[in-house]
């Protein structure tokens, strides 16, 4: 029987992160960050000083080499209590690990160590205006001019593009007829000539504290040393670390569901209508029950995903299922939480109202619901042939 109980070390880690964030990111400060579009760099630096930014990265680069279960629990806790800090940590989970796994010592020195010390994570340039989640349909390409790669194209919906010191750009070699065998990862510094980055307005948040961007690459010239990993292996490298991205997606959205659920329950216990607490009404109780069941299902799915990944098992199907189910279920939980909160959830700046807007993108970012079905359902069907 699998025991998903947290270890003593994990419990201590979660409590330490929570205590730091409650001190560095109180509720009013979080609201100000979203009102003013300002990232709380002081709180992120405090995270770094405590050693939390390096969780899950190898010890030899200055990180703390823990299993994926622990990384997921850390991301869950940061997402619950850290507000905009969660975007940095969840983006760093796949991108900084990419550099550690595939990068040269020089690349690790340049990009990973500053991140662990409190800098921004690298951004990931995969989605494009004309192809979205269809990585194989990318149009961004490169050609060699001696030992210099000349990159042309564009990336869209790039998270943390304005804050990142560099972007991991996936580009294809047009001399290779199959993108799966001809794509390459490049580390492109944001200040490289020919790189243009524009912040895109987010639904409901003109001044979000972290950015989603469009990136244009016009005759961008980078040396051969900017290749991350092996030339023409970029597609496989991208696929290899999708598990970490899925775990970041899933643990982050569950944190949103848990917080919204907690706010709804607290309100149901104190708000009185028609002479009694609204939590005594059967229809409210039904919503509470539905939310609780979905959260329990999501947590169990996350634990199983992390456990199997830590055991070295193939989790591609489960990761797709978790991304699909947890994104949808969290949207449903937040919707029910708004229904319980009623007026206070939709006026002012109540955090669940913000969640209602923000969480909708979870069903698109990192692979839409439809892409998860397209990629995962056929693999499920194969099990029964």
Characterization of the model:
By secondary structure, the protein is α+β, with helices and mostly antiparallel strands. The protein folds into three domains: 8-121, Butyryl-Coa Dehydrogenase, subunit A, domain 1 (Orthogonal Bundle), CATH 1.10.540; 124-232, Butyryl-CoA Dehydrogenase, subunit A, domain 2 (Beta Barrel), CATH 2.40.110; 241-382, Butyryl-CoA Dehydrogenase, subunit A, domain 3 (Up-down Bundle). Helices cover 52% and strands 15% of the residues. The chain has helices at 8-24, 27-36, 41-49, 68-81, 85-102, 105-116, 179-182, 234-240, 242-270, 282-310, 316-341, 343-346, 351-358, 369-382; strands spanning 123-125, 141-145, 148-159, 166-172, 183-189, 195-200, 212-223, 272-273, 276-277. The protein starts with 7 loop residues before the first helix and ends with a helix.
What Rg do the Cα atoms give? 21 Å
Using DSSP, what is the number of strands? 9
Give the H and E element order. HHHHHHEEEEHEEEHHEEHHHHH
Walk across the major sheet and give the strand order.
2-3-7-6
CATH C-level class of the largest domain is Mainly Alpha
- The secondary structure category is alpha+beta
Q: What's the architecture of the largest domain in CATH terms? A: Up-down Bundle
- Count of domain modules: 3
Q: Which word captures the global form?
A: globular
| N-to-C span | 28 Å
Q: Fraction of residues in helices?
A: 40-55%
- Strand-residue fraction? 5-15%
């Amino acid at each position: 029987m699998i025991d998903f109980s947290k270890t003593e070390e994990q419990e201590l880690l979660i409590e330490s992160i929570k205590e730091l964030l409650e001190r560095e990111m109180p509720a009013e400060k979080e609201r100000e960050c979203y009102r003013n579009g300002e990232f709380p760099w002081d709180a992120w630096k405090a995270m770094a000083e405590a050693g939390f930014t390096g969780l899950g990265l190898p010890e030899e680069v200055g990180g703390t080499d823990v299993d994926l279960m622990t990384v997921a629990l850390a991301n869950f806790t940061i997402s619950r209590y850290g507000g905009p800090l969660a975007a940095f940590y969840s983006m760093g989970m796949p991108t900084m690990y990419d550099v550690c796994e595939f990068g040269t010592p020089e690349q690790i020195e340049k990009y990973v160590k500053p991140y662990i010390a409190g800098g921004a994570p690298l951004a990931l340039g995969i989605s494009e205006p004309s192809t979205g989640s269809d990585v194989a349909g990318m149009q961004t390409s490169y050609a060699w001019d001696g030992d210099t790669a000349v990159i042309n194209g564009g990336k869209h919906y790039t998270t943390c593009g304005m804050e990142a010191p560099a972007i991991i750009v996936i580009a294809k070699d047009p001399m290779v007829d199959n993108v799966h065998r001809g794509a390459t990862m490049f580390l492109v510094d944001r200040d490289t000539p020919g790189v243009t980055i524009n912040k895109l307005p987010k639904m409901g948040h003109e001044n979000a504290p972290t950015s989603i961007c469009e990136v244009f690459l016009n005759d961008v010239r980078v040396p051969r040393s900017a290749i991350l990993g092996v030339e023409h292996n970029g597609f496989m490298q991208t696929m290899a670390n999708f598990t970490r991205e899925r775990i970041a997606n899933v643990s982050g959205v569950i944190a949103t569901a848990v917080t919204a659920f907690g706010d709804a329950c607290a309100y149901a216990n104190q708000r009185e209508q028609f002479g009694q607490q609204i939590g005594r009404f059967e229809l409210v109780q039904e919503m509470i029950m539905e939310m609780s069941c979905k959260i329990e299902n999501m947590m169990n799915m996350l634990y199983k995903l992390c456990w199997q990944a830590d055991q070295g098992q193939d989790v591609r199907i489960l990761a797709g299922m978790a991304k699909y189910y947890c994104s949808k279920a969290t949207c449903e939980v937040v919707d029910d939480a708004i229904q319980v909160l009623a007026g206070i959830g939709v006026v002012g700046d109540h955090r669940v109202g913000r969640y209602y807007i923000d969480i909708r993108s979870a069903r698109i970012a990192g692979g839409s619901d439809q892409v998860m079905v397209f990629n995962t359902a056929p693999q499920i069907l194969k099990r029964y042939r």
